[in-house]
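Sample 1 of the test manifest.
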Amino acid sequence: MSEVKKHEVVVRTSNVAKQYGEGEAAVRALNGVSCEIYSGEYLSIMGPSGSGKSTLFNMIGGLDKPSEGSVFVNSVDIAQLTPRELAFLRCHTIGYIFQTFNLITVRTALENVTLPMLFAGTSPDEAEERGAKLLDLVGLGHRLHHRPSELSGGQQQRVAIARSLANNPAIILADEPTGNLDLKTGQEIIDLLRHLNEDRNVTIISATHDHKMLDVSDRIFHIRDGQLAKIETKEELALTGHSAQL
Amino acid sequence: MSREQFKNVDPPFWVAWNQALASIRVRFFRQLITSVGIALGIAFFACIQTMRLAEASHEAETEARLKWLVATSLVMCLVGVTNSMLMSVAERYREIGTIKCLGASDSFIVKVFFLEAMLLGLVGSFGGSLLGVTLMQLANLTSGNIVPFPAAAGVVLIGTVVGMFMTVAAAIAPAMQAARMPAAAALRVEV
């Protein structure tokens, strides 16, 4: 929490709205969300499906552009970036983790981790060395040359976590990282993420349904009907006893 | 971080090359079918072209009819190849979205598909033209109407070049479209 108290803003959204479709068929997935996310915090975004949680997540990660409002990552308005600059931002500043792991199926675990490094211009030798270290860090040092199809779900998610760390990003975006895993494996992934958050001071933003994920969060954003309904801090959670909230 | 720092450079050529090779190697069976599809189309073209040369007809009417057949075979071939390549891009939208998240530029994605199509097109159309020319020559053995070697080799060469060009052309448009999609949209596509 000490890092959080510094309140250095790493992501800021200002009145972000997103509309899919036109005219009568239009769906407003987000309706004016303004928030600040601090460097080094572990933030969970909660909300029922269809609440706009994933849409907000995509906006923050530069995966989609808002219809209105702006998103600032490290005080750069990402709507102003060219596709090439956006690719640079995704490569260097943000690491992504998905519910469905989304590893490149045709490459090995090590190649999955080194690919973002090669995009960043790292030499192959250095990339391989760093990639092996990262896989070791997530406990897969013995599975470097296995392809995703030869790994279990938990192992695949570990590879994805190692890959998200490839270029030492400031932010890790995790979209329901435990959604496709059993309880025990899910807990291991949460512990790993929390550990990385504390050790490397990387900001973790995670969309989740998972209650276990809330226990480790510094703050929780509750999204309802495309709006930011409530922000809870860890202290408030401890006071109210979060079973009542959920 | 200021905007001036966003100077992204594409990774060296071999990164795209390795990605294309890995994609062919791992999806070997799927890619083989695509390649055979290309090969059959080009084999048909090579057959007709060899037949045209073997007849070596000076009658304007026969010549015109055979040219017409050659053109038809090319159109058929183009439709088949386009279908294969459209499918091969469409079933990989998710992979494209993921690779964008890792920081790939649009041009890197197009480059991978370009290389893949070129390799598949090369193998498929070379095999196809060889098959087509050989079959036609064998069929003409009895009548003794064999096309001499240099001309037959010419048919193989033309078939290979035309087939490769068609494959690349058919793959590049859908690949460019997929590369330009926002990453979130590419990830959402379910095939």
